[in-house]
Write a structure and sequence with these properties.
CATH class of the largest domain in chain A: Alpha Beta
CATH topology of the largest domain in chain A: Aldehyde Dehydrogenase, Chain A, domain 1
Strand order of the largest sheet of chain A: 10-9-11-8-7-12-13
Number of domains of chain A: 2
CATH architecture of the largest domain in chain A: 3-Layer(aba) Sandwich
Distance between the termini of chain A: 52 Å
Number of helices of chain A: 16
Largest interface: A-B, 69 and 69 residues
Low-confidence stretches of chain A: none
Structural class of chain A: alpha/beta
Helix content of chain A: 40-55%
CATH superfamily of the largest domain in chain A: Aldehyde Dehydrogenase, Chain A, domain 1
Radius of gyration of chain A: 24 Å
Number of strands of chain A: 16
Oligomer: homodimer
Strand content of chain A: 15-25%
Mean pLDDT of chain A: 96
Shape of chain A: globular
Chain lengths: 414, 414
C-alpha cells in the first residue's frame, strides 16, 4: 500500500477506535494473549528464520539475543497484556470540572491522540507492547519494526489482526510496515494530515534520522546521561546503596547513572569507600583531578567523557565545591533524563528538585526507577525528554490529550 | 543577531527565568503596566508611523484598525497585565502525588516548556500579551510580529526590556525580531536545540507557511468551521438564542458558528423562525435542498460551502435525518475546533459530547464561549486544534509541561 493510502486507512480506522467500549478493547487484548500462548511453536519457528538470517549476516550476539522470541519472551508479552487489561481505560475520563460564574460547567475529557507511528529496532516484543498500549488508549497505530525482525513481526502482527477480527473490530486502525525501504518511511513521516505523533524507540542514530525526516511531531529521547549528586549532608549509607544500584544494576539502560558528583566536604569520607565498592563490581572510574587524588586507580576524565552515555560499567566522577556547581554541571552535560540528589538537608532537597528540570528528579532514590512500572504508570511506551506533551515515561494517559467539554443551559457570549 | 545566536541567548536566558520567584515576575509585569500607561504619547506616536506607511501602501481599513494603538488598546493591554498578575504562577505546582508500594512518593511538577517562538500578524498588542504569558509561565520567548507593525512593536518591546532591567532581570530570555526577512525566520524555525515550541497566530496562510517550514513542534489552528446541531429534543427557545449568538455576536471570529445542522423532526417548528431572526440580523443563508423548502430566501449550498470558514454573516444550514448524520457531517467538514448540540435529551447530550472530538464540545451553550477567559483559564495564547500537548485554548498551564519528582528514603531498583 502507498504511504498515503496506509496512513489514510489508519486515520479512518482510528476514528472508530476512539469510541470502542472498554470491554471490547479488553476482549481483543485477552484474545491476543490467548493466541500468543497457543501459537508458541509458530512464533518461535518464524523467529528462527530471522535468527538464521541474522547469524548469516554476522549480527553481534547481544543483538541476536534482543531479536530472539523464546518462551520467556512470549510469557512476558502475555503477562504484559494481562496487566494492561487491568489498567483503567483513559478514554472518556473527565479529569477536571469547574463552574463558571454564568453557571456553565466546564471540564476536560481525555480522548485519543489519533494515529501514532511507532518506529523501533530489532525487539519483536515491541510489536505487541506498542500495539496494545495504543489500542487500549483508542489510538490508531502504524508499526514499523526493524527489517531484521520481519518474519517475527509479521507473525505477531498476524495474531493482532486475528484478535481484532475475532472480536469484530475493523483492523484498519492498526497498520504494519514490512518494508525496509527508508524512502517509504520518510514519505510516511510527511503525512501530517493522517499521523498525529511519531515515537521512535531505539538507538540515537535511529531517533535522530526520524526526528530529521519527520514533519509529524516526534516524542523522543536521544540519550540518558544521568547524574547523582551526593550532597555534603548525605547519609553515606544511602549514598553508597543508591549509587551502586544506579550504576551496576543494569548499566546498559538509559536510566543508569553515568556521572557521580560529590560535594568536597563529604568526598574524603564517602568517595574511597564508594570507589572500592564500584571497583569490586568491575566499574572503571574516570575522574576529575581531585577524584584521582582520593581514588588512586581512577583514570583522568576528559571533556568528552562528561557528555558520554557509556551504557557500560564506566563512571565519571567529579568533586564539586557546591550544589550550585553540581546543578551547573548537570545543566551543561546532562540530557534532562534522570538526575538525583542524596541528602538529608530539607532545603537542598527541595532546591535540587525545583532547579533540575529533568524528566525525573529524585531525592534519595536510584535513577534506575525512571520507568513506567516503577513509577506506577503501568505499562509504558518509552521515556520522553521532549518538553512538550509528555516529559518522562509515557503511559496510557500520555497517549491521550484532553478536549474541553461544557454543560450549559443556554449560556451566550455577551 | 544571527538566528542561532539569538535563539541560543533566549535558551540560556530561559534557564534562569525558569527559577525566577513569582514575586519578581509580578513586579516586572506591574512595572510594564505602569510604563504602558506613562508612555501613551510615545506609543501612539510610534504607532502613527506604522499607520502612515500602511495608508500609503493602501492597506484595507479593517487591517489598519487592527494595527492601531489608541487609548483603548493601551488600557486593555494594561488591564490584561493586572489580570495576569492575579493568576497563580503555574511553575512549581505539584499537580498529583501518589505513593508506590516501596514507600517512594512520586509526583508531577509543572515546569516551563523552555523557549517559545510566537509569530503573529499586525496586532501590536500581541507583543505585550504573548510576552507576559510566556514570562509569567517562566518561558523564554522570541517575538516575531508583522513587518507592518515594526515601529509599534519596537516601541512596545523597548518598554518590556525596560521593565526587565528595572527589576534586575536579565533580558536575554526575551528576544524580538524586527526583520521582515522570511529566510531569517525559516532558519530560526530549524533550531530545535534552542526553541521548544512555535505558536503562529494569524491567518491560515501564515500558519501553513510556519507549519511547513518549522522543524520545531507547532501548536496551531488553521480555521474554525464550527457547527451547532439542533437535536429533535431541543428546547427551541434555547436553540434560537444560542444559534443567534453563535452566528452574529462576532461573526469574524474562529469560534463563530458557520454551519447549522437541524434534525428533520424539529425543522418545521424551528427553522422558519430561526431563519427569520437571522435574516433580520443580515445573515445570508445557504442551505441544503430541504432547507430551501422551509426557508424560501435561502441560496443553495454547494460542496465547497460546507468546508468554508466565512468569518462573515453567511451561514450554511443542513437538515439531517439523525444525530449520526450530524456527527458524520461534523467529522467530514468540521475543523475539530468548536461544536455544540442543543438538546434536552440526556443520552444524546452525552453521546454528542463523547463522540465529537473537537477542542471544545458544548451542550446548550454558544460556540463563542471557546475562549480562555470565557472558560475560566484566564488569559490565553490562542486556541490549538493540534491534538498534542494542548487542545483548545492555551492558558498559562498549557505553556508548561510536568516533570516527575520522587521523594525517597534509599529506594533501589531490584
Amino acid at each position: 500500500m502507498r504511504p498515503d493510502a496506509l496512513a489514510g486507512a489508519a486515520k479512518a480506522g482510528a476514528r472508530k477506535l476512539a469510541h470502542l467500549p472498554t470491554d471490547t478493547k479488553n476482549k481483543v487484548l485477552s484474545t491476543l494473549e490467548g493466541l500468543l500462548l497457543e501459537r508458541r511453536a509458530f512464533l518461535k519457528a518464524e523467529n528462527e528464520k530471522d535468527i538464521r538470517e541474522a547469524r548469516q549476516a554476522e549480527m553481534p550476539a547481544p543483538l541476536v539475543e534482543r531479536l530472539t522470541i523464546n518462551d520467556k519472551v512470549i510469557d512476558e508479552m502475555a503477562s504484559g497484556l494481562r496487566d494492561l487489561i487491568q489498567l483503567p481505560d483513559p478514554v472518556g475520563e473527565i479529569v477536571k470540572v469547574w463552574r463558571r460564574p454564568s453557571g456553565l460547567l466546564v471540564g476536560r475529557m481525555r480522548i485519543p491522540i489519533g494515529v501514532i507511528c511507532i518506529i523501533y529496532e530489532s525487539r519483536p516484543n515491541v510489536t505487541v507492547d506498542a500495539f496494545s498500549l495504543c489500542f487500549k488508549s483508542g489510538n490508531g497505530v502504524i508499526l514499523k519494526g526493524g527489517k531484521e525482525a520481519v518474519h517475527s513481526n509479521t507473525a505477531l502482527f498476524g495474531l493482532i489482526r486475528e484478535s481484532l477480527e475475532k472480536e469484530g473490530v475493523a483492523g484498519d486502525a492498526v497498520q504494519f510496515i514490512d518494508t525496509g525501504d527508508r524512502t517509504y518511511l520518510y514519505n510516511l513521516l510527511k503525512l501530517t494530515d493522517s499521523i498525529d505523533l511519531v515515537i521512535p524507540r531505539g538507538g540515537e542514530a535511529l531517533i535522530r534520522s526520524v526526528a530529521e525526516q519527520s514533519r509529524v511531531p516526534v516524542l523522543k529521547h536521544y540519550k540518558g546521561v544521568c547524574a547523582i549528586y551526593v550532597d555534603e549532608h548525605a547519609d553515606t549509607k544511602v549514598a553508597l546503596d543508591v549509587c551502586l544500584n544506579a550504576k551496576v544494576q543494569k548499566p546498559a539502560t538509559c536510566n543508569a547513572m553515568e556521572t557521580l558528583l560529590v560535594h568536597r566536604s563529604i568526598a574524603l569520607q564517602f568517595l574511597p569507600a564508594m570507589a572500592k565498592a564500584f571497583v569490586e563490581r568491575g566499574v572503571r572510574i574516570k575522574g576529575c583531578r581531585r577524584t584521582k587524588e582520593l581514588v588512586p586507580g581512577a583514570e583522568p576524565a576528559g571533556e568528552a567523557d562528561w557528555h558520554e552515555e557509556y551504557l557500560d560499567l564506566i563512571l565519571t566522577v567529579k568533586i564539586v565545591d557546591s550544589m550550585d556547581e553540581a546543578i551547573a554541571h548537570i545543566g551543561t552535560y546532562g540530557s534532562e533524563h534522570t538526575d538525583a540528589i542524596i541528602t538529608t538537608d530539607y532545603n537542598n532537597a527541595w532546591r535540587f528538585l525545583r532547579e533540575v528540570n529533568s524528566s525525573l528528579v529524585l531525592v534519595n532514590a536510584s535513577t534506575r526507577l525512571n520507568d513506567g512500572y516503577q513509577l506506577g504508570l503501568g505499562a509504558e511506551m518509552g521515556i520522553s525528554t521532549t518538553r512538550l506533551h509528555a516529559f518522562g515515561p509515557m503511559g496510557l494517559e500520555e497517549l491521550t490529550v484532553t478536549k474541553f467539554v461544557a454543560f450549559g443551559e443556554g449560556q451566550l457570549r455577551t
